[in-house]
Amino acid sequence: MSKPSTKPPSGMRDFLPTEVLRRRHVIELVQRVYEAHGFVPLETPSIENLSTLLGKYGDEGDQLLYRLLHRREALQRPLDRAHAAGRPALEAELADQGLRYDLTVPLARVVAQYGELPRFFKRYQIQPVWRADRPGKGRFREFYQCDVDITGTRSLLADAEVCSAVATVLEQLGFEQFAIRVNHRELLRAVIRAAGIDEALEGTALVAVDKLDKIGEDGVLAELEQRGIASAAGRALLAIIAPTSAGERAGERASDGAQLLATLRAQVDERGQRAVDELQELLSLCAHNPAGQHLEVRPDLARGLGYYTGPIFEITVPDLAGSLGGGGRYDDLVGMFGKKQVPAVGFSLGLERILVVMAEREMFPALSAGPDLMLCWLGVAQPEVVRVATQLRARGLKVEVFPEQAKLGKQLSYADAEGVKAAFAGILGDAELAAGALTVKHLSSGRQQKIPLAELDPARLDALAQDPPTT
What we know:
Layout lengths: L16 H20 L3 E2 L5 E3 H4 L4 H6 L3 E3 L2 H13 L6 H4 E5 L4 H10 L7 E10 L11 E10 L4 H18 L5 E6 H10 L7 H8 L2 H15 L4 H11 L4 H5 L1 H4 L1 H9 L4 H17 L8 E3 L13 E6 L8 E5 L14 E7 H10 L12 E5 L4 H13 L4 E3 L6 H8 L8 E5 L1 H6 L1 E6 L5 E5 L5 H9 L5
Parallel strand pairs: 1-5, 7-8, 12-13, 12-14
Antiparallel strand pairs: 2-4, 3-4, 5-6, 6-11, 7-9, 9-10, 10-11, 14-15, 15-16
Helix pairs in contact: 1-7, 7-15, 8-15, 9-10, 10-11, 14-15
């Protein structure tokens, strides 16, 4: 019998200490920025009822949901019924729960469930989601999203606020070149009408348009035809939303959002013109926050999720296929769970993609996973080693104790080994114990000094690292 594989499942990952520190670095910065914008934290269960999840992401999204089979008798009963009827068991009979697909639908459920929430609920949520997608570079089946949402208002100030929050995060992480692409779902619908496409095919047309950057105009035209949209209508649609090459769309045309919106306004009906007016207002508001210099009007931006109703957003960076995040306004989603309609807007950053780009571009600061000090000991009783380690930790130091009796050279070598990389070694022998001190060695420079235990703290170690002792 072969041994089981030690690899995690496809699309899932283990995070070793250095990776965990990088993730923590980004997440803590995201939390600080979101809280500075007035957002409060929320967490929801990993498992949701399928009745909550299904029908919110479109047919393709529903196919990517991880479903959890019933257990024991609850699974056996539908299997027995199906067998007795001479048919395979139906999917709906075998599962009624699934792993969450995103953080927006759970938020909508929470808002509908808890009437005591503030009228304008500004929440952030940083948790994993799961999608049965094909893994690729920066694309995983389990990944974290960093969401900010505001519920309870249709004001475009809310849209500007979520754009400001994510732009501030990226700037503080060190991103200089990134674009926040913007469009409006009602403008897309107006363009579809202007192209002569039946409104009944609107959803399927948007699914194809959403792939424009991936498969190009010819690929979109072919897919539109496969979805029952006439070639002439498909060409008319692309003539409005993508009249130039992809490079020009991302550059010259996107740089003048006001002019582009004016051109679009002349091609759409009254509902489309109202959408253009909202985008113009959003651009005006964001001109006064960090998002403004990054906004690009992109009439070809579709966003595949079916619950968007107003402005939609997507973040791109050079040399990365796909996006770092996205979002938009979803004024009807909360109403699906309750009697009351609650407007909302949100933005989601993809943690995994951010980490991939930052690693490739060497954007991370120096992050140490090792202890401040490795406590090495020679010829002293182990209870004394524990006592000294406890005292040092109480003074704010991260201390690891070498766990075995060994020669000093072996202990020092381990302290400086890859995967440990302690900044200092603290040597505890009979002389140090009697003097109530520790001989502290800065491992990278070799400088060392005997320091009283009562004086050992992070500041004293920093001083030893920077300046050699004078005596």
